[in-house]
């Protein structure tokens, strides 16, 4: 007689982003009652759909609609709000610093490493002090309020040098995140200027700095050139093959000798593997990612799986040309990997064989502001309104839950008829300031 398990299989998912949430969602749909317990660990109680962050920052989408509450969606899973600090597979434990400050260990039978990448920074003088990231919903909200508050201050000052500094906006990094953030914020600021007396579009100085000789390497070189041309037509200065030497005190110094002052410096120059993985006994590649098979099983560790930005999953669509090719870290792969990962875990629990992940990269779409975009899908290159529509259609398709799809669609419809919102809610960054003044008066 086969032995009967005394308790359900304990599945622990470290990370509640694309991979973590979608994998947990797939597991709670496929697992039989009592077959396994699923625990999701993440510092935030929500998953952020990052492709929509630029539109949230620009006022086209309500920020709350870009995030998905984990506890609401994963109603058959255990959601733990805390930061995983260590994984010891030799003991099958995950050490977590919980939201209230205490540390706890979680034991597992099956582990899923679904950690997201973090911003890759460089030792540039001034970057830690003045740089602003664009990876979380908090940063998107902050950027929106920050840019609009610069317009308020510029309209109030009589100092031409201060106004020039306030109206200088810099984005460092020419990948998708940088280009879409730059284009959406510039579009928002241009729209907002109609409500500011004494300010005109030519007063603003928007700058893109990219260290390589092209932007958005995921699309064709021709579309990259087209995108630069469109940005420059909007008065945006693009520095390609250029690096930032320093930005101390907001004084931006480029390696071609260009110098200018800016009060808004946005850093989107790449990502790197989560450093927490160094505090694990999982096998890592030279880039700090978890080494995996094509079925997303961690090499040499039965019962351990990984997918997403911090995993080195072989890209079977390219391994004939390059045997070392791995899937690039983007939402397209992360979402598709997680859906197969849930099936593979269930199959493995039931004695089946997991399937290899194979997905040929179909292309990319990018929004460049309202009614503007570029698309390179299946070799078909599109520009303008059609590409912009494809961008929105593609991402709303992959937005989790019908609830969030509907809310985003309503936001877009309202913006279509009533225009962008141009209200800066800067008080949220100092919520007690007015009350403190009242108590001292």
TrEMBL record:
Organism: Saccharothrix longispora
Family as reported in the entry's similarity comment: Belongs to the NADH dehydrogenase family.
UniProt cross-references to Pfam families, sorted A to Z: Pyr_redox_2 (PF07992)
Keyword field: FAD, Flavoprotein, NAD, Oxidoreductase
Domain (FAD/NAD(P)-binding): residue spans on this chain: 10-334
Transmembrane segments: none
Designated name of the protein: NADH dehydrogenase
InterPro entries, sorted: FAD/NAD-bd_sf, FAD/NAD-binding_dom, NDH-2
Gene3D superfamilies referenced in this protein's UniProt entry, alphabetically: 3.50.50.100
């Amino acid at each position: 007689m086969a032995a009967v398990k005394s308790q359900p299989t304990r599945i622990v998912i470290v990370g509640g982003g694309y991979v973590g949430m979608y994998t947990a969602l797939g597991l709670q749909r496929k697992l039989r009652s009592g077959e396994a317990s699923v625990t999701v660990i993440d510092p935030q109680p929500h998953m952020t759909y990052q492709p929509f962050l630029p539109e949230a920052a620009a006022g086209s989408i309500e920020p709350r609609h870009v995030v998905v509450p984990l506890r609401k969606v994963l109603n058959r899973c255990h959601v733990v709000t805390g930061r995983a600090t260590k994984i010891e597979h030799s003991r099958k434990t995950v050490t977590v610093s919980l939201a209230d400050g205490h540390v706890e260990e979680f034991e597992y039978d099956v582990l899923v490493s679904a950690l997201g990448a973090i911003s890759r920074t460089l030792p540039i003088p001034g970057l830690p002090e003045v740089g602003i990231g664009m990876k979380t919903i908090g940063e998107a909200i902050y950027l929106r309020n920050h840019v609009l508050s610069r317009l308020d201050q510029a309209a109030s000052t009589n100092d031409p040098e201060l106004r020039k500094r306030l109206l200088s906006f810099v984005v460092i990094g020419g990948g998708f995140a940088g280009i879409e953030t730059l284009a959406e914020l510039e579009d928002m600021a241009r729209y907002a200027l109609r409500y500011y007396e004494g300010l005109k579009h030519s007063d603003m100085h928007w700058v893109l700095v990219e260290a390589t000789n092209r932007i958005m390497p995921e699309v064709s070189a021709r579309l990259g050139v087209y995108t630069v041309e469109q940005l420059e037509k909007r008065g945006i200065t693009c520095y390609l093959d250029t690096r930032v030497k320093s930005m101390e005190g907001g004084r931006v110094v480029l390696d071609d000798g260009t110098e200018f002052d800016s009060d808004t410096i946005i850093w989107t120059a790449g990502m790197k593997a989560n450093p927490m993985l160094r505090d694990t006994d999982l096998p890592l590649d030279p880039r700090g990612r978890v080494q995996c098979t094509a079925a997303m099983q961690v090499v040499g560790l039965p019962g351990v799986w990984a997918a997403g930005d911090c995993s080195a999953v072989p890209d079977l669509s390219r391994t004939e040309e390059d045997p070392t090719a791995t899937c690039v870290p983007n939402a397209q792969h992360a979402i598709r990997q997680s859906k197969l990962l849930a099936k593979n875990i269930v199959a493995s629990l039931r004695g089946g064989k997991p399937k290899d992940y194979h997905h040929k990269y179909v292309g990319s779409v990018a929004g460049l502001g309202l009614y503007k975009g570029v698309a390179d899908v299946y070799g078909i290159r599109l520009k303008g309104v059609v590409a912009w529509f494809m961008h929105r259609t593609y991402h709303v398709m992959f937005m989790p839950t019908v609830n969030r799809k509907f809310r985003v669609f309503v936001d877009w419809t309202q913006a279509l008829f009533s225009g962008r919102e141009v209200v800066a809610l800067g008080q949220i960054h100092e919520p007690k300031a007015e009350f403190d003044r009242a108590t001292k008066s």
